[in-house]
């Protein structure tokens, strides 16, 4: 499959002109931020952008309404968030956020930085499209279902499955060989892509995964693993294997206010941005973890796994996107605040828009032409993604109810 032309993914050096102003996307390989980096992001959001840090579904960061791109570049470079001007958009690496601390078959904490260093060290890999995704799954299956172009999935502490184009290739690797093979696969993708800039992903190349395996001189040796999409949102108190504590925090619609980020940075512990638009504050003593919850829960961070905020996601909508029919974030926020986002176990389940209706007696839904519904009348149980138009940007890959704005109201499903 060939797409339209060169991919236009934004970065720090190439801003996207969104409807509400320039947008910068900052790559955070493995979602790993140190306190100084989070502090710099918070200050940049406050001084140079709209005051918020947006978390993306690839564990990256976005700033909106950037007023001074040169100043932003300098600030990010000073804390190591822009180590290369040539490779900034290719550093899309998602790793199991709890690896090495809680569960998993292998400790992958060193692999993310090693893969990033390998990408940066290879001049040709700057040619990778900004959409190419690398994943490192420690065997718990939390990120292998995200459809990476190139990934590894631990099947033991020292053995990994090589994933290509979102599937298990059947190739098995020793831990020591993973980075070298992933980088070689990235070169292989570029070889196959040739001059066709419209091929943004390995998935876009016919038989791309098999051809990369051949190029690398590897052979499938095992039955393919199934890699289901699995949402593994770490929320609340997480006992680490080293006796310390991690705190998983949900972030409302993935939008972290600069002031909250500054409080997080002041904790002076590693922060991991998750691909579910949340955070993990790692390596806390128990007393410090209690303090963090006491201070940051009232500021809006979510430590309660039953929070309705964890059931909802939304695209940018108005005013950030010119295609949007409405301000979806305001609408979904009102739905949460007024109790219209219901637990998944609520009897009406997906698609309900009348809490008092009896589903047993309800008339069959008109599937071909679903009704349009005012935002204030929507009441849906379980996971739901609100979109400002049919493109459904940011939609999670797993099961959700779609709530899509049209020019006549919302359509459910
Ligand atoms: S789903 Fe539509 S309205 Fe929402 S961000 Fe994407 S293009 Fe814009």
UniProtKB/TrEMBL annotation:
Residues 348-370 are annotated as: Disordered. InterPro entries: NIR_SIR_4Fe-4S, NiRdtase/SiRdtase_haem-b_fer, Nit/Sulf_reduc_fer-like_dom_sf, NO2/SO3_Rdtase_4Fe4S_sf. Residues 24-71 form the Nitrite/Sulfite reductase ferredoxin-like domain. The keyword Ubl conjugation does not apply. Gene3D superfamilies: Sulfite Reductase Hemoprotein, domain 1, Sulfite Reductase Hemoprotein,Domain 2. Keywords: 4Fe-4S, Heme, Iron, Iron-sulfur, Metal-binding, Oxidoreductase. Pfam families: NIR_SIR_ferr. Residues 351-363 have a biased composition (Basic and acidic residues). This is Precorrin-3B synthase.
């Amino acid at each position: 499959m060939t797409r339209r032309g060169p991919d236009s993914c934004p970065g720090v050096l190439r801003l996207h002109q969104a409807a509400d102003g320039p947008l910068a996307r900052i790559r955070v390989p493995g979602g790993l931020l140190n306190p100084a980096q989070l502090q710099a992001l918070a200050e940049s959001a406050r001084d140079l952008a709209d005051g918020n840090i947006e978390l993306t579904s690839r564990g990256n960061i976005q700033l909106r309404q950037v007023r001074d791109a040169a100043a932003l570049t300098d600030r990010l470079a000073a804390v190591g968030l822009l180590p290369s001007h040539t490779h900034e958009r290719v550093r899309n690496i998602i790793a199991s956020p709890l690896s090495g601390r809680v569960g998993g078959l292998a400790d992958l904490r060193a692999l993310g930085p090693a893969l990033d260093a390998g990408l940066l060290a290879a001049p040709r890999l700057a040619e990778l499209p900004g959409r190419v995704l690398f994943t490192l799954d420690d065997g718990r299956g939390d990120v292998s279902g995200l459809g990476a172009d190139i990934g590894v999935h631990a099947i033991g502490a020292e053995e990994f499955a090589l994933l290509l184009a979102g599937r298990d290739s059947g190739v098995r690797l020793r831990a020591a060989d993973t980075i070298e093979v992933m980088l070689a696969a990235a070169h292989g993708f570029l070889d196959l892509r040739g001059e066709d800039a419209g091929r943004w992903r390995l998935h876009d190349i016919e038989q791309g995964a098999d051809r990369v395996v051949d190029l690398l001189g590897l052979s499938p040796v095992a039955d393919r693993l199934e890699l289901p999409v699995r949402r593994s949102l770490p929320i609340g108190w997480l006992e680490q294997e080293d006796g310390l504590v991690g705190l998983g925090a949900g972030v409302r619609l993935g939008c972290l206010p600069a002031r909250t980020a500054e409080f997080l940075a002041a904790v002076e512990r590693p922060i991991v941005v998750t691909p579910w638009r949340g955070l993990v504050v790692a390596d806390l003593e128990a007393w410090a973890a209690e303090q963090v919850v006491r201070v940051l829960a009232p500021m809006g961070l979510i430590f309660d796994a039953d929070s309705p905020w964890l059931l909802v996601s939304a695209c940018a909508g108005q005013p950030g996107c010119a295609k949007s029919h409405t301000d979806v974030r305001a609408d979904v926020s009102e739905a949460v605040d007024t109790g219209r986002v219901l637990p998944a176990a609520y009897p009406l389940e997906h698609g309900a828009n009348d809490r008092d209706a009896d589903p047993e007696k309800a008339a069959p839904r008109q599937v071909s032409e679903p009704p349009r519904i005012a935002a204030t009348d929507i009441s849906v149980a379980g996971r739901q993604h609100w979109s400002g138009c049919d493109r459904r940007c940011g939609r999670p890959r797993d099961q959700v109810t779609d709530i899509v704005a049209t020019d006549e109201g919302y359509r459910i499903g």
